[in-house]
Design brief:
Elements lengths: L1 H6 L13 E3 L1 H6 L1 E2 L2 E6 L2 E4 L11 H5 L7 H8 L4 H4 L4 E5 L17 H4 L1 H5 L2 H12 L10 E6 L3 E7 L6 E6 L5 E8 L2 E9 L3 E9 L5 E8 L9 E3 L9 E2 L5 E13 L2 E8 L3 E3 L7 E7 L2 E7 L12 H4 L2 E6 L5 H7 L6 E5 L15 E7 L4 H12 L7 E8 L8 H10 L3 E7 L9 E2 L4 H7 L11 E6 L2 H13 L7 E3 L3
Parallel strand pairs: 1-5, 22-23, 22-26, 23-24, 24-25, 26-27
Antiparallel strand pairs: 2-3, 3-4, 4-5, 6-7, 7-12, 8-9, 8-17, 9-10, 10-13, 10-14, 11-12, 15-16, 15-21, 16-20, 18-19, 18-21
Length: 498
């Protein structure tokens, strides 16, 4: 809130009077001190000097990027952050690295009309930039069409989708007539769609099943009236959903709170549903963004959707909801707002985002998960994937869960139920502020504790294990560093950003 108030105070945070300007690499490099700090992110240059003491990761982390094009560094650390909204009052201008097109002729002469053509004189600056961008963009191979098969029985029919990967994001929408069916499959930064006017009406919601050990997904449709259909229906080509269109994460969808479940004294689960007959899946390790506007400033936060239960299989109704575990922080503007939502309240949620791919651990036999606080939520998807999708490939799933006190443990009953049902799964709780009655592990993450929870063998000699880490930034960085010291390469573990 202090940063929002400073941005709305009228103070010039750009340092250049608010006049947008083009910035060369040489100019950018001169602003490389803590008291004079500029950096570039995705083509924009920001004066982050006034933001230094507000940066959640600390001044030192921000200093790593000042004076340079920090796009790569930013994408590695927290690509999901809406930097444009946070730093819009600090915008200096556009970053203009020199190219052969922009270097003036050494002899001082200008190109003749025969060299540049008449269009160059008539085109606007924006048109020229767009033309140059299109000219330098490499040609993309044609996208493959989404393949599918249709099977039916008397009461149900199934659309089997042949996806390119095992982690697609799938959105299913049914029109008010219960016949207009749209399926959008998003993977590898592109989406493909199927749109049918079904031969007859179906019951909402359908059931979506990921076929184990494959990239096939089955959508089961329950018929309103049992009987044989001659075909699935009439295919319809929608102009706004062409095959292979890029996936856009800029739009938010309005969702309503359908149900609320208490987890503990400061955490609850919100069950969200679309306003229309629609639902979507979230790939393992991916997240959604929730945002709201406070005092004219947009604030957003990422949440990893979870399932309704880690033990019970989801019903059709469960799949039609998005479940977010919300922990209320005293100083958390958005989390406090979410924690006070009621049934039927509207929340704006983005589509799923993320780059994590399950292929990094599908051939590993043993998974070791280290989570702190709400860093537990990405682990839910990993555990479900290992248990239900890569069936027969994973023999051990070990979760070490760090919390402050016993009452802070999230979903403890659910974890105990899972350990009783699945012999492959074990959970160990570690408390940093345990009372005298606690008989479990105590302390914080360190080398000794980490070694006690991992197999003693050298991961380079016996690469059966894979490690996942998620929690506050300090916890994640410390654990990742300890794993490196213990001989784990970056191919042997993955750190989710908390």
């Amino acid at each position: 809130m202090d940063w929002i108030r400073l941005g709305n105070s009228g103070e010039d945070l750009t340092g250049v009077g608010g006049r947008l300007q083009d910035v060369t690499p040489e100019q950018l490099a001169r602003h490389c001190r803590r008291d004079d700090a500029w950096l570039a992110i995705r083509g924009n240059v920001y004066n982050v000097t006034p933001y230094m003491n507000f940066h959640p990761g600390g001044v030192e982390e921000l200093e790593r990027g000042i004076g340079t094009d920090a796009t790569k560094l930013f994408s590695q650390v927290h690509a999901w952050v809406n930097y444009d909204s946070i730093l819009k009052k600090c915008l200096v201008g556009r970053y203009r690295p020199r190219t052969t097109d922009s270097i003036p002729a050494t002899d001082g002469s200008s190109p003749s009309s025969s060299e540049v053509g008449l269009g160059a004189f008539l085109a606007t600056k924006e048109e020229k930039e767009k033309h140059n961008a299109n000219r330098n963009t490499p040609l993309q191979p044609p996208q493959k069409k989404l393949r599918y098969d249709w099977y039916e029985q008397e009461e149900r029919g199934s659309v089997v989708l042949y996806c390119q990967t095992q982690e697609p994001s799938i959105k299913v929408t049914l029109g008010d007539d219960n016949q207009n069916l749209t399926i959008v499959v998003s993977e590898k930064d592109a989406s493909q769609s199927l749109h049918f006017l079904l031969e007859n009406t179906i019951v909402w919601p359908p059931r979506l099943i990921q076929i184990p050990n494959s990239s096939k997904v089955e959508l089961q449709l329950k018929k309103v009236k049992p009987g044989h259909w001659k075909t699935l229906g009439l295919p319809i080509q929608k102009s706004d959903q062409e095959m292979g269109e890029p996936v856009s994460y800029s739009n938010y969808s309005k969702m309503k709170v359908s149900d609320i479940f208490s987890v503990n004294y400061n955490t609850k689960i919100l069950a969200l549903s679309y306003l229309e007959q629609s639902f979507s899946t979230t790939p393992v390790g991916h997240h959604v963004r929730v945002h709201n506007t406070f005092e004219g400033q947009e604030v957003e936060r990422c949440y990893t959707p979870i399932c309704k239960s880690m033990v019970d299989l989801p019903t059709e109704e469960d799949q039609a909801h998005l479940y977010l575990m919300i922990k209320e922080y005293k100083d958390g503007l958005l989390s406090s707002w979410l924690a006070t939502r009621s049934i039927d309240d509207i929340i704006e949620v983005s589509s799923s985002e993320g780059s994590f791919q399950t292929s990094c651990f599908t051939n590993r036999k043993e998974l070791y998960l280290f989570a702190a606080g709400t860093g537990f939520t990405p682990m839910v998807g990993v555990i479900n994937w290992a248990r239900r999708i890569i069936i027969g490939k994973c023999t051990k799933i070990s979760l070490t869960f760090f919390n402050r006190t016993e009452k802070d443990i999230l979903w403890r009953d659910e974890l105990d139920r899972l350990a009783q049902k699945d012999s492959r799964f074990t959970v160990s709780h570690v408390l940093s502020e345990a009372d005298e009655s606690w008989t479990g592990l105590r302390g914080r993450m360190d080398g000794e504790l980490l070694r006690s929870q991992l197999p003693s063998r050298n991961p380079q000699d016996d690469p059966k294990t894979f490690v996942f880490v998620c929690g506050p930034t300090a916890f994640t960085q410390l654990t990742g560093g300890l794993l490196s010291v213990m001989g784990y390469s970056n191919k042997d573990y993955h750190c989710f950003q908390g």
